[in-house]
Design goal:
CATH architecture of chain B: Orthogonal Bundle
Low-confidence stretches of chain B: none
Number of domains of chain B: 1
Mean pLDDT of chain A: 89
CATH class of chain B: Mainly Alpha
Helix content of chain B: over 70%
CATH class of the largest domain in chain A: Alpha Beta
Largest sheet of chain B: 2 strands, antiparallel
Number of strands of chain A: 14
Shape of chain A: globular
Number of domains of chain A: 2
Strand content of chain B: under 5%
Radius of gyration of chain A: 22 Å
Distance between the termini of chain B: 14 Å
Oligomer: heterodimer
Number of helices of chain A: 10
Structural class of chain B: mainly alpha
Strand order of the largest sheet of chain A: 2-1-3-4-5-11
Order of helices and strands of chain A: HEHEHEHEEHEHEHEHEEHEEHEE
Order of helices and strands of chain B: EHHHHHHEEHHHHHHHE
Strand order of the largest sheet of chain B: 1-4
Shape of chain B: globular
CATH topology of the largest domain in chain A: Rossmann fold
Largest sheet of chain A: 6 strands, parallel
Largest interface: A-B, 43 and 46 residues
Number of helices of chain B: 13
Structural class of chain A: alpha/beta
Mean pLDDT of chain B: 91
Strand content of chain A: 15-25%
CATH topology of chain B: ABC transporter involved in vitamin B12 uptake, BtuC
């Protein structure tokens, strides 16, 4: 066993050397820093699919490396530095908490390009990118409001950051639109990935009468809990989670990072990479809506699909007034759509909309 | 048949040999595990143990060893006091968090943080006091009401985590942070930063860990209190007869370990971590338990054990990115270390005898 592996690795090294020599220059090295394990079935899984797509698209011209389950702090800084030292040309850091570490490391390696997901700090060699997941949340709310019988929708939230709050607001607005009696129960798990905590949160929500559960955490534990409970609906998060369909998983938000990762890698190869801020939604394909299953009524499915089409074409904005803030003050006037930045912009959203009874944890 | 026979005295030889044998066994079985995963086993071990120390980029990794090892050593030193006396502080993670919160709180309260001569010492004091006070809760409860300090200290970790989240989202949130959670970055203010020389990994936490090793060594080698701690652990009745107050000992051990954990937390939050964030704690308080035992509860042993543990973390990440080893394999590898240590430890207290078959 040992001998064979050694021989195989020696052969692999020789082959790699051969390729590099024949080609004349080394492959572009792309690093990925992941917050969860690549097998989480959700957030990190999809980023890793993006990495594999880069490998597929460029073959021998790229080499990708990754480190998974990296805590958001000094460890992240060390892992990024390590990748930069080992010759990475482009590094994707795929969690909000990597923001300061990315900026710090990028300052030390001006020739390495960094791409930070879901943050707001840019630099000459740091781009930011995120997806308009709230468009997908709108579709979820639209479906959830119609299929709930108890009128209680459970929401497993991760951290009270703008991205998560946007999702809650968007889902709530669109659930309320189709069901004036709907009520949201929100549990903050303070984790992106912890199957035990997520399962517990799901169980508590089900006990409190929720028959639809939305989640902003990355594991499939809530799906499993809903399956065990029987008549509870869920939505796949970050990944399709179709193995839980057609019930409890009735649809999903799918993050599709592959086109972006391929485009950015190409830009590095061509020498055209520039620091940018990207925020794409359903229209650009960064947010996908997974197959809506037949477990829900046909007319609900049809109207949800119509909504997806309107969001994709840009005809409809998920935050269109009139919308009031939780305290009753006006946020968006009739027909007004939310702006991305500035005061009360989507990027820094830190308030609930009117009707939500919970409070954002402080 | 093979039988285990209790030794009258723990074996001197095996006390020192057990950690070394455990490390060797871990390497052998770890290599087998990596091989089964289809990765080159020797190269993987090399990436974990050799690369950070002697590889091309060791100028970067060696300072990282200090950063990663310092909190482990400081916390493990404190824990070892109690562990020797049979006092089990399992909640160092919580004391670490509270120390960080108290120390950071002082700095943030005195924003814009100008006078270093005042602020940094006040932060150190607040950090130590925070950890101390948090450890006093299980201490006093145990002394007054006989509660179990293992459970109380562990449960208080979860309380501390909630407090941390609340602080990062509320009271200590950076007013210039666009509504995102997390405090101002303390390491960017010269008066509050615990860095001494960032490029060499030197910060006050490293200094505290090293001073702690010296103090703990003197305590056990020369001081009556060190003797009393050992006595209380080995022969509680004899200790009581010789006038050792169990209550005082409990409070001393828990308080000291709490203060050290608090200092570790403060120096981390004001240096390598920089800011109070929701997931500031990454498990040093729990890993330090392994470090304490791996180091035989001996100050110098703990220094080496902390360095070794830090090495497996750093080398583990190197192996991940360069060989594509999964994180879980690294974690199994670290777990093996404790597993084999506990297994080999049997030889410290027991002798293996091969007996002749007995005819019934």
């Amino acid at each position: 066993m040992l001998r064979r592996t050694l021989l195989a690795s020696a052969a692999a090294t020789a082959m790699l050397g051969g390729v590099a020599m024949a080609d004349g220059h080394e492959p572009t090295k792309v690093g990925f820093v992941f917050v969860g394990p690549v097998g989480d079935g959700g957030w990190t899984y999809e980023h890793n699919q993006g990495r594999l797509a880069v490998e597929e698209a460029f073959g021998d011209q790229v080499e990708t490396v990754f480190v998974e389950s990296v805590p958001e702090g000094p460890d992240a800084e060390r892992v990024m530095t390590q990748m930069a030292l080992e010759g990475a040309d482009l590094i994707f850091t795929t969690s909000f908490g990597y923001m300061d570490p990315t900026i710090n490391v990028a300052a030390n390696f001006p020739d390495v390009r960094f791409e930070h997901a879901t943050g707001y700090k840019q630099a000459d060699n740091v781009s930011v990118y995120s997806a308009r997941f709230y468009e997908g949340r709108a579709v979820q709310g639209h479906i959830a409001g119609q299929i709930t019988e108890s009128n209680i929708i459970g929401y497993i939230a991760s951290f009270p950051i703008p991205e998560v709050i946007r999702g809650i607001n968007s889902a709530y607005i669109h659930a309320l639109e189709v069901n004036p009696d709907v009520e949201f129960k929100i549990i903050w798990a303070y984790t992106w990935f912890d199957p035990a905590k997520e399962a517990e949160a799901a169980a508590v929500l089900i006990e409190q009468g929720a028959d639809v559960i939305l989640q902003h955490t990355d594991s499939t534990a809530p799906q499993a809990a809903a399956q065990a409970a029987g008549n509870v609906y869920t939505f796949g998060q970050a990944s399709d989670m179709s193995e839980f369909g057609p019930m409890p998983r009735v649809s999903s938000i799918i993050d599709d990072w592959a086109p972006y990762y391929i485009a950015r890698t190409q830009a590095v190869m061509d020498g055209t990479w520039e620091s940018t801020s990207t925020w794409d939604g359903i229209g650009a394909g960064m947010v996908g809506i997974g197959e809506i299953s037949d477990a829900i009524p046909a007319e609900v499915k049809a109207s949800a699909e119509a909504m997806v089409a309107r969001l994709a074409s840009g005809e409809y904005h998920a935050f269109t007034g009139p919308i009031n803030k939780q305290d009753g003050s006006v946020w968006l006037a009739e027909g007004e759509t939310a702006s991305d930045y500035g005061d009360d912009g989507l990027a820094g959203m830190a308030f609930y909309v009117e009707g939500l009874t919970a409070e954002i944890p402080q | 048949m093979i039988a285990l026979e209790k030794r009258p005295q723990p074996s001197q030889f095996w006390t020192f040999a057990a950690p070394i044998v455990a490390v060797i066994l871990t390497m052998i079985f770890g290599a087998a595990l990596f091989g089964l995963l289809g990765k080159p086993p020797i190269e993987a071990l090399g990436k974990i143990f050799w690369e950070p120390l002697f590889g091309e980029f060791n100028f970067f990794y060696l300072p990282q060893l200090l950063i990663k090892g310092a909190p482990l050593v400081a916390i493990a030193l404190g824990l070892s006091l109690g562990f020797k006396a049979g006092i089990w502080n399992i909640g160092a993670e919580g004391q670490y968090i509270i120390g960080a919160l108290c120390g950071a709180g002082v700095a943030l309260a005195l924003y814009p943080m100008e006078a270093r001569w005042l602020i940094f010492p006040a932060m150190l004091f607040a950090g130590a006091f925070g950890g101390f006070a948090w450890a006093m809760i299980p201490g006093v409860l145990r002394v007054k009401f006989g509660t179990n300090e293992i459970l109380v200290s562990l449960m208080l970790v979860y309380v501390a985590e909630q407090l941390l989240a609340s602080m990062a989202l509320g009271l200590m949130k950076n007013p210039e942070g666009f509504g995102f959670p997390g405090s101002r970055n303390l390491s960017q203010y010269s008066s509050a930063s615990s860095w001494i020389d960032q490029s060499n990994g030197m910060h006050w936490g490293v200094v505290i860990a090293l001073i702690g090793v010296i103090f703990a060594y003197i305590l056990f080698a020369k001081h009556i209190l060190g003797f009393q701690i050992k006595l209380a652990g080995q022969a509680p009745r004899a200790a009581a007869f010789s006038g050792v107050s169990p209550a005082r000992l409990i409070l001393f051990c828990l308080g000291t370990s709490g203060a050290l954990a608090g200092l570790a937390g403060l120096t981390e939050v004001a240096g390598p971590a920089g800011l109070v964030s929701i997931d500031f704690n990454v498990g040093y308080g729990f890993t330090a338990i392994i470090v304490a035992f791996l180091g035989r509860l001996h100050p110098v042993g703990i220094l080496f054990a902390g360095a070794l543990m830090a090495l497996t973390y750093i080398g583990g990440d190197v192996a991940q990115s360069s060989l594509g080893l999964p994180k879980a394999a690294i974690q199994v590898f670290q777990g093996m270390l404790l597993f084999f240590l506990l297994g080999v430890d049997v030889l410290t207290n027991y002798r293996v005898r091969i007996k002749q078959g007995v005819v019934a």
